[in-house]
Amino acid sequence: MAPVLPSDVIGVCCVHKYRCGHLLWEDDVRLGPFVTWCPNVPMVCHLLTPASNTRMNTPTPLSRQQHRLAKPAATLVAVAFATMLGLSSCGSSSGTASDASVPAPQVVREPLGQATPANAPGQTLYLQEVTIPAHTKLGTHLHEGTQVARVRSGVLTYNIVSGVAVVTRAGGVVENFTGPLVITLKPGDAITETEQLTHFGANDGDIPVVITLAALLRDGAPLATPQK
Asked: Which of 3, 14, 127, 173 is a plausible cystine mate for 49, CB 3.0–4.6 Å?
């Protein structure tokens, strides 16, 4: 038989194995619409079972007076728990701050071949595959020689700072672009870059951009020479 409960009882503790039957009063420390603290097990956050729907076949609940005596300790625990939640929330909401410690995806260069052509003294020939992660922007640079690059997958946003870029579209159409200008290179498009072309690429999409390139550069020159 269900007990007769005081009118200001709003529910009874009922969560997992801690079904202690503690009465939840209107002035209990509340952590949400259906969550409170129970002094019987003060380190456990309890769910509420509405008092009108509860049959207490669990240990005898605390009386109103016992509850008042136990409540300060429960309140302290609740405040501590709420503070902990606040700190945790601050930590997670500043995800950008915590994420800052995680290295950003890096551009990957995979060497496919390298040679020093006899008919190009003082020059080194490179064959590489370059993968640019999603939402990654390269620094402004130029190549100390001539480079031909073809987009295999993804869409490359190509920013011409100064100079002329020669683009051969996938269908065979050749176009010349003079900077400053932003163009788009899609799979099958190829671009010829000279030493006078200052530029940078960016992957504004959600999938990596993969490029195959051949570069004939001055001996000892970096694969990309940074520019301001």
From this structure: 14
List, for residues 102-141, the tens digit of each pLDDT value.
677 789 999 999 999 999 999 999 999 999 999 999 999 9
The C-alpha angle with vertex 157 and arms to 155 and 159, in degrees rounded to 5, equals 160
Question: Buried b / exposed e across 144-169, counting CB within 10 Å, b at 16+?
Answer: bbebebbbeebbbbbbbbebebebbe
Residue by residue, DSSP assigns 203-228 as: E-SSS-EEEEEEEEEETT--SSEE--
The last residue of one of the domains, among 98, 119, 146, is 98
- Whether 3 is covered by a domain: the verdict is no
Mean pLDDT, all residues of the chain: 75
Regarding pTM above 0.90, the answer is: no
**Domain count across the chain:** 2
Q: What is the mean pLDDT of residues 26-52?
A: 50
Range of the domain at 84: 9-98
Closest CA to 78 of 15, 25, 31: 31
- Whether 166 is in a domain gets the answer yes
pLDDT tens-digit readout, 184-218 = 999 999 999 999 999 999 999 999 999 999 999 99
Asked if 147 and 192 touch (Cβ cutoff 8 Å), the reply is yes
The H-or-E segment that residue 23 falls in is: strand 23-25
Domain-located, residue 103: no
